Structure of histidine kinase:
Amino acid sequence: MERSLNHLRRWGAPAFAVVFFILWCIAEAGRMGGSFTAWSGALPLVLMTFAIALSVWVPYASMAITAALLLGQLFHLIPPPYSNHWAIYLGAFIALGFTLWVSNRRTRLIAVGLNVVFAALMTVLMLSWRYGGGVGWFPDLGYGDSVTFSQFGWQLFALLLLIAGGCAAVGLLLALFLERESLFQARATAQRGLHKAEVNLVVEQERSRISRDLHDVLAHSLTVISAQADGIRYLNKGLPASVTEALESIARSARSALLDAQRVIEGGENDDDARPQPQLNDLESLVEEMRNGGLRIEFGESGERRDLTDGQQVAIYRIVQESLTNALKHGGRDTDVRLHLDWSGPGLTVHVASTIAETDAAAEPEADRVGRGLPGMRERAHLAGGWVTAGPDGEHFRVTAYIPYPKQEQSVDDGASSDND
């Protein structure tokens, strides 16, 4: 319904103008004498047709055409109304209805005011003996203008205003109907937004509850792990150096994980109160930590380092961290890992390749190897403007991440390249 009304609102006036013109031509075909231009109502009909057609698209031009027609007849530049075609004037009120339908408040007020003036001019043109001599109202009885206007002027003027008011009422009703539909749509949109906000609130409350529970569990478990690892070292001074280093790594990792968990769970949404996020310079510490955990990591870079945003650096760090953790989890100790950062392209490309243990390759499906960490890596890369792929490649499991350089960096690079050319 609304779609049909919108089409009618845009094309209704031109279509009505065409119908208006055709019906008048059919009705007056016998009086035209075979020539449209010889008919006295030809020019008024053409002008009024254009006034109707333009009432939606260019309302002020439509009103100007009606005014030009009436003033032209008033100054005898256009033939006055005759008994057979005075009703062409009604096209002005049809144009008024379309104008009130589609226009703003200011244009509506101007259109109503001008059509009151048009009705007064039509009354003069129809009743005065100098013009129409009473056409459409009564036969010419030979009254003077003063008698005619005193007896019939207000009646004809009121009738024309009544017709104009009917057309205006139709236009306003259509406008109110469309406005009501728009309000209904806005209300429906607001209700959907309110429902979504309510759902988000419930989800957030549930997340907060889970976060509190998770924090309590992790804090207890990680604290116990750290305390037990430190306790074993202190109570057994004669342990081999490799065992002592492993216990130190366990305690250090547990404490670090506890701090990370507290930051993510309690302060993840308040970066001002949280400790600084990891950056690219922290990769070496991460690699060293994973080496202490048992991975044999070959770490290298190619190309010249470029500046990345803080968010991009965090994304790269977490992607590398997840990749190395998966390599240790699925490959075990002594797994060979190659980590390479390629700075030579339009963005940083990170390659992580780890050997697949034979038992792991035979028994573990690819989906289990990927685990839940890959969606997180993909999301981080996507937010940083890049992408991540992961999967087995022969005897290795490869993770490739691409993060584009910031636009400012790229524009500086392009400028430098053009200068060199």
Observations:
- The CA atoms of residues 285 and 291 lie 10 Å apart.
